[in-house]
Amino acid sequence: MTDLIARLGEAIGASHVLTDPHDLASYSVDWRGAYRGTPLAVVRPGSTAEVSEVVRLAHDSGVAIVPQGGNTGMCGGAVPSDDGSQLVLSLNRMRAIRSLDAGSATITAEAGVVLQELQSAAESVGMLFPVSLAAEGSCTVGGNISTNAGGTAVLRYGMMRAQVLGLEVVLPDGRVWDGLRSLRKDNTGLDLKQLFIGAEGTLGVVTAAVLALQPATPSRATAWVSLPSVSAAASLLSVLREHAGDWLSTWELVSRPALELVVAHGVPDPLTSEADWFGLVELAGPAGADVGSALEDALGAAVEADLVLDAAIAGSASQRTGLWSLRERVSEAQESLGPTIKHDVSVAISSLDDLVSRLAPALEAALPGVRPVIYGHVGDGNLHYNLSRPASLDPDEFLAHAAQLSTLVHDATVALGGSISAEHGLGSGKAATAASYKSDVEVDLMRAVKQALDPAGLMNPGKVLPLQ
Ligand code: FAD
Ligand code: 2HG
Ligand code: ZN
């Protein structure tokens, strides 16, 4: 291995091949501290040619590679194994915006560009890059593509997959596939880029992408609402769509326990409602669009129909930021309670109420006092059904129940025709679980694709598909 490290140093510069345990620390653990590994080394190539050379050298030595972007993933996908045998390939030096074409509404960005930098680049030419999530100050284009990230504007713009027009990928043997096309229409055979989107680095390293931009939406109207039930939240979606049409860009749900956590972290709640459910609505339109009136009309109709109990509409940019914090800071606030058993499930919007009402008694019976902290992207049928520990248990005692509790959540979701991973992917944490719910045919197809692209099994092994 000393030989490989030396050759990697010759290829990309010794200062970009990290082996000192102190330098490896932040690349070896995910942001929650839930997944830990020990890399052989961390390599930080600065160009596609360097990524290609690193992957080729590793391939020729039979060494596995774990691509890493902002390391904000939820399922351990960017964390190496703990046996010191895998190279972490960080994309954080590949941060160039290669081109920006406002006329064609496209941007070509390298994989290490941070999502917020991409959004700012789009804004600089009066356009919008619509994928938005609370980790946007750290997560990267390559990570967003590789996890097919969702976020808070999916109901209007779709997930990351919907934004990708073209990709550049370094294949597991080091060859470069230049698929950086910016075409809206291209029916010349298989749409190969789709294989790499959501593949979590198991089929190759994404080095750059052509992404579609949208018209800017400078007119915004934002409200925080309280609701009588989850079924009201689902019905409200139709009312919002009736009144706002395509201006509806966000409809997010927050349960009372989730709200209480954020409020305890200092974010003020503008409502004094005793309700069990709350939500964030945002309409966004072009300059001059009367989104404010549309929001007031929609909420008026929702109050009439007993779907909304109370509402606070942001009157300024700072109030808007405050309302967004009530939703976006839940994840961080829940972390302060200690280990969380996370679930990222989706069902049809009409089944959300059923899911929540089935699970509450089942979880309480399995572990009395367990605390569901439910929130998520209700407009997409996607809930983060996260569990915090009962006061009576210490963290290890609580985590000993993880498998049993997660099986209850996942079984109920699948029984309703849902998915056990709506937007976070599988990583190492959920690979085996997902395979257990898929048919043999589906798992065989996934293995066949992996075998075709990565016959040596060196690209992020054990992620997405469990090792055989
Ligand atoms: P990483 O964590 O570094 O990697 C994720 C996976 O992609 C790994 O398997 C890794 O190997 C692979 N990968 C990374 N870069 C490449 C590349 N260039 N080529 C090939 N493979 C690569 N996610 C959502 O979908 N919606 C949300 O609303 C959301 N909110 C979040 C809020 C918070 C506070 C946090 C911390 C995370 C949130 N996430 C959310 C999860 C996370 O931000 C996303 O999964 C994000 O897309 C990961 O990007 P990253 O650059 O951090 O990737
Ligand atoms: C969100 O929607 C993220 O806030 C994070 O997807 C969810 O931390 C989580 O479980
Ligand atoms: Zn989410």
UniProtKB/TrEMBL annotation:
It comes from the Bacteria. Keywords: FAD, Flavoprotein, Oxidoreductase. Signal peptide: none annotated. GO terms for biological process: respiratory electron transport chain. Its cofactor is FAD. Pfam families: FAD-oxidase_C, FAD_binding_4. Residues 35-216 form the FAD-binding PCMH-type domain. InterPro entries: FAD-bd_oxidored_4_C, FAD-bd_PCMH, FAD-bd_PCMH-like_sf, FAD-bd_PCMH_sub1, FAD-bd_PCMH_sub2, FAD-linked_Oxase-like_C, FAD-oxidored/transferase_4, Oxid_FAD_bind_N. One of its GO terms (molecular function) is oxidoreductase activity. The keyword Metal-binding does not apply. PANTHER family: BLL6224 PROTEIN, D-2-HYDROXYGLUTARATE DEHYDROGENASE, MITOCHONDRIAL. Belongs to the FAD-binding oxidoreductase/transferase type 4 family. This is FAD-binding oxidoreductase. It comes from Nocardioides seonyuensis.
